[in-house]
Amino acid sequence: MSRVSRVNRECEPARWYATNLVGLPTRVLASTAFNAHPVPLHIAGAREANPGLFALLARCAGEAEARAVFEHYMSLAFGLARPAADEPAIEARRWRASYLKLLQGWGLDANGAAGAVLKGWVESRFGLVPVFHQAPLARFPSPAWVAYIEQKATSRFHSNNVLQQLDLLFEFSQWMLARFAPLGPGPSAELWRGSTRCEEQVVAGSLRERRCTVRLNNVVSFSRTREQAGCFGDWLLRAQVPLAKLLLWPGLLATALLDGESEVLAIGGDYEVEASYA
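^ that's the sequence the OP posted. Answer follows.
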């Protein structure tokens, strides 16, 4: 077996996790077959534990109203409003751990502590283990894995039930996509990704052949347009990404986080892409 084959085998999701909270085998969720024939995904218990939120959302007539309801609910449920000057210091520390701060940290550095927490959330909910965090995560144990595990447990982002906050963000994303179809009809959206390290991600086919299969990290950023993706690398990958895998997209929240680059956050795995060189 060649070195490349061994590395690919070590990174195979089915060799790591077999369980998740979405009721679908991880190896299926990570496959190109799922992307070609997606089904709705829901995190077990997330909606059931927050019936009030979804009852309020059901009454919303438009996207703006739904965004306001979600933001208000999250602020009350997780104490995300800025504490008053006379509140105890512990409340100020508690406020810092939020899905908004996590997304902001991801936007600044996807390989930092915020990125590790987000990748850890995908691990626990979808069963997909990351393949890269500051360095390839191909073997365990290794210094790269130790650094990743330490970062994803940091209290700066990993407190105040932040994983449950992300659960609700995902469920809100899926609710909005189903209710208002902001990204258009159909089960998938055409998205783009710019990269300078595509060769390391190819698991079938070749970049030179234009069509190939790449293995992306367990949570990955896409762009809405080719022009925006071109800012992130010379190789441009066009993919059909299932709406069921989308965590965040421009316009989902009432904040401009990540909107400047029209960034879309999606659950990763294997994707069939059309590659072109900018």
